[in-house]
Amino acid sequence: MGAIDTAVRGSRRIEKILKDEFGAQGRGLHECLSSVENQLPGRVVSQGRYIASVRNAVVHEDQELSLIHISEPTRLLSI
After folding, report:
1. Burial of 43 by CB count in 10 Å (0-12 exposed, 13-18 middle, 19+ buried)?
2. Whole-prediction pTM
3. Fewer Cβ atoms within 10 Å of its own Cβ: the N or the C terminal residue of the chain?
4. What is the largest CA-CA distance in the chain?
């Protein structure tokens, strides 16, 4: 799986959880997080925003995922 595919799939998975479990609204992970951030611990919001930023960098700025970028988001996605 390539970097873009990994980033997009992970973000979509989190967006789906936010929408299905918390009633999040918006386009993209940042907007979904903003719509429900009062329902989530601050640490979860911060980690979600980090994941969204990495995804955006990979997709829009043509950056490669490195082990530094994916170690924490991968751990979060496996929860």
Report:
1. exposed
2. 0.73
3. C
4. 34
